[in-house]
Amino acid sequence: MSERTPAPGAELLGAFALAGRPLHCEPLKRGHIHDTFVATWETPGGARRAVVQCINTHVFRDPAAVMDNTLRVTEHQRRALARAAAPEAERRALRVVPTRDGRAFQLDDAGRPWRCFPFVEGTVSHERPAGPGQALEAARAFGGFVSCLADLPAPPLHVTIPGFHDLAGRGAAFEAALARDAVGRAAGVAREVDATRAWLSAASCPDEASLPQRPVHNDCKLNNLLFDATRDEALCVVDLDTVMEGSVVHDFGELVRTATCLGAEDERDLASMRVELDVHQALARGFLAGADGRLTLAELDALSTAGARMALENSVRFLTDYLEGDVYFRVKGPSHNLDRQRAQLRLADLLFAERATLDRHVRAAAR
Ligand code: GN1
Ligand code: MG
């Protein structure tokens, strides 16, 4: 997926229930899925900014379900913040700006769904943590997110992407894409295919079906967290589209995948990649502190290989998308998904090799 949706015009922006007049709109380059813009409104109290986002309906087939989940989760967060009398509560949970007729998203003339959130000012997100202190803070926030959702009232959240972390299902989709070879790329990736198959068959993942299911984030990339720009304090968990029942092991794993690696997600210099063990130790401490004793023994046992497992899962997904012609993730060029695939498989190797040390970190943090 490489083409971008054009910036929303004044009419579309005017559909959202924000005071004042929309002035201008710039693309925000973050995330591999949606098209995101920052719009500025002129109000009597000065300029105000909002995030305006076109929901990717190739990825999220049911935007109403996504927004229903987002409303329920953010309202639940706000109730918890109010009970705790948390300072600056408006900066600690997203708030959906409704349309003027009270809906959670607006369809444009082409039928694309758009949504709007007030911009959380004075925040930054990080691709990599500056050090263990920031990693601890991030992990505490993501662990705290799971804690907060532990008492989310019934019914269960909608399943916005079926089989999202089903590794066997991801493996089957990869084999199907390989067999279909829709864009004639299969012959060029024989080595990657062999390596992926070897990993998938060797991946003696713990029996995930028996792990407790609870509302989790499901996409705990470090950059899905806003930090206060001056205090280095984790403020607001964002990107709530995949919040649904799942395993906390995948949340921890995704954080490990994105925060412990010296090297980018699409790193081409594979030999330079390293795992930062002190960052992992901080993640384990922070996550378990945030999760506040909610993890079971089976979940704790699975944490030491969680990062490798998520690197593998992402690697399989990137290779599948490469074989399908780059229809899911936004890419910078024709080999981008392949670069990502190789780097993530390398990261899976690196993390798996450290599993004994990672397990010690988890045990020590759980004491
Ligand atoms: C996508 O939206 P973003 O960039 O936070 C993807 C994740 C992948 C990630 C890989 C809905 O996350 O599952 O792990 O890219 N989100 C979806 O970087 O598929
Ligand atoms: Mg995302």
Beta content: 5-15%
Taking strands numbered 1, 2, ... along the chain, how are they ordered across the largest sheet? 1-2-3-5-4
Q: Could you say which structural class the secondary elements and strand pairing correspond to? A: alpha+beta
Q: Any idea what the shape is? A: globular
Poorly predicted segments: none
Q: How confident is the prediction overall: mean pLDDT? A: 96
If you had to describe this structure to a student in words, what would you say it looks like?
Helix content is 42%, strand content 14%. The protein has helices spanning 10-14, 63-83, 132-149, 167-180, 190-202, 248-259, 277-291, 297-302, 306-324, 336-353, 355-366; strands at residues 21-27, 35-43, 46-54, 106-107, 113-118, 123-124, 214-216, 225-228, 234-237, 244-246, 261-262, 274-275. The strands form four sheets. It has a five-stranded antiparallel β-sheet with strand order 1-2-3-5-4. It has a three-stranded antiparallel β-sheet with strand order 6-8-9, covered by helices on one side. The protein has a two-stranded antiparallel ribbon with strand order 7-10. Helix 3 runs antiparallel to helix 6 (248-259) and helix 6 runs antiparallel to helix 7 (277-291). The longest helix is centred in the N-terminal third of the chain and has 21 residues, at 63-83. It binds 2-acetamido-2-deoxy-1-O-phosphono-alpha-D-glucopyranose and magnesium ion.
